[in-house]
Design brief:
about 475 residues, alpha+beta, 2 domains, Adenine-n6-DNA-methyltransferase TaqI, Chain A, domain 2, four-stranded antiparallel β-sheet
């Protein structure tokens, strides 16, 4: 979006209640004045709409998944949804005050971030997320005025109207903060009720498709886990163990997790009934590219044709974030020629090891160097392996994550998994019927993700089109 030249008069500067002198402030005033004066749209603040705004609390005691409820931190909040990947979630006691939990249709957003660009992200709580606990860095918004629906509001809070206003957030020593007072002053234009309804109906489908897609993936993973006998295993953690030096010599790998008995015992059980093959036998692996931070462009400043730059933090709920932190010019995209296609599997090899995603029909992206693209070779057909089945296998913690973790080393300061080590991961090969059943479930999941992304794009474009009215 290109900012236009506007004129502000001396009286505007002298009389503004916020004592602001920056151009962004007056540009925002110009946008809303134009909407109000020339199109007769009502403009209200969250305060006018009687929105209840509160924050969560700092919790430093985490417990197991089976005993607790998810604790939502800033990194879990993505546009329209919450990141529910195991690697991103921690759990806290359910016996915490209700005021720091979320209820259905409440909206949550990160109120502190490293940069203002990352503040402009809002999620809506679905029925499945009710009761989650939020951290002190998250604000919860509950509407008590029926002028707007929460579905319209969450769409608006992911639009450029909102992003422009978060650019005026308070700057601290190391972070930016959107205070409750500033949130109450966020201005919202109120379109006709039929427009509000149309956008709300689409957001309801966005929420529904997100839930259904994740349910299909969970069912596929559970089907495979049951077949492999993983769900019935009761492998206890061990605090200490020993190995023969000959094993160190043979493997030339000095990571203690490589020899961790529970990880090894899982595959001993799997191999009793099912054959396995090395991942490298059936896939081509190509790592992404680090384009350099000088080439990063934030969403508010990106021009038409700019391409999403997907880093490890931009993999959410098994897909690439539709609105990542940064974008890259089309010129760089063309020069890199990464050859990224729908159906390609993404697997993280740096930092947060072992996260998986699959690209949808709506994804056009550049992947960062911390991610590898995994694509089946023609030889995979000999084993009846499909991209959807392989995605499911790599998404199972006991196979993809644990085996990747065994082969991870610390490079300087962050965990790192070499592509050659990744190729060593063993892939179980069940009968064709099982692979076909899993493939059907995962295809349905990613069809839903494709439809969801199209709806999100429609909703955001619909709201942002009012910039030009």
């Amino acid at each position: 979006m290109a900012l236009k030249t506007i004129t502000s008069y001396k009286t505007d500067i002298i009389t503004n209640n916020n004592n602001r002198l920056d151009a962004k402030y007056f540009y925002i005033n110009h946008v809303f004045s134009k909407l109000k004066n020339y199109n007769s749209y009502k403009i209200k603040t969250l305060g006018d709409l009687k929105a209840k705004i509160s924050s969560g609390s700092y919790i430093n005691k985490y417990i197991s998944k089976t005993q607790g409820v998810p604790y939502i931190r800033v990194g879990n909040i993505k546009p329209f949804s919450i990141s529910e990947d195991d690697v991103n979630l921690v759990y806290v006691s359910n016996d915490l005050p209700k005021k720091i939990k979320v209820e259905k249709n409440s909206i949550i957003l990160g109120r502190t971030q490293a940069t203002t660009a990352k503040l402009a992200v809002a999620s809506i709580v679905s029925q499945e997320n009710e009761g989650y606990v939020i951290s002190q860095h998250i604000s919860k918004i509950v509407l008590e005025d029926d002028t707007l629906t929460p579905y319209f509001l969450v769409a608006y809070l992911n639009s450029n109207f909102y992003k422009l206003q978060t650019a005026l957030a308070t700057h601290g020593d190391t972070r930016v903060e959107l205070t409750h007072s500033q949130l109450r002053n966020i201005r919202i234009f109120i379109p006709r009720q039929d427009i509000i309804k149309s956008i709300s109906d689409k957001v309801k489908l966005i929420i529904k498709y997100n839930f259904l897609s994740l349910e299909n993936i969970r069912e596929a993973k559970n089907t495979l886990s049951d077949l492999l006998g993983i769900n019935s295993l009761n492998l206890k953690k061990v605090k200490a163990y020993s190995i023969n030096y000959s094993l160190l010599e043979k493997n030339n790998f000095w990571n203690p997790l490589f020899y961790y008995p529970p990880y090894l015992n899982i595959f001993k059980e799997i191999k009793k009934n099912i054959n396995t093959i090395p991942l490298g036998e059936i896939v081509n692996i190509k790592k992404g590219t680090e384009v350099g931070s000088d080439n990063y462009v934030i969403g508010l400043e990106k021009k038409e044709g700019y391409i999403p730059f997907i880093r490890t933090s931009d993999l959410i709920n098994y897909e690439a974030d539709q609105f990542p932190d940064y974008y890259i010019s089309n010129d760089i995209y063309q020069k890199l020629n990464q050859d990224i296609r729908p159906g390609d599997i993404l697997f993280t090899k740096d930092g947060k090891i072992g996260m998986t995603a699959m690209l949808t029909q709506e994804d056009k992206a550049i992947i960062a160097s911390g991610i590898v693209r995994v694509r089946l070779k023609p030889e995979a057909s000999h084993y009846n392996v499909t991209p959807e089945y392989l995605f499911t296998v790599l998404s199972l913690k006991e196979i993809g994550f644990n085996q990747a973790l065994r082969r991870t080393v610390i490079a300087s300061t962050i965990p790192h998994l070499r592509e050659q080590r990744l190729k060593e991961i063993e892939i179980p090969i069940p009968n064709k019927n099982i692979i076909d059943n899993i493939t059907i479930l995962v295809k349905k999941a990613f069809d839903l993700k494709t439809q969801r992304k199209r709806l999100i794009e429609e909703v955001i474009q619909n709201i942002d089109s009012y910039f030009d009215t």
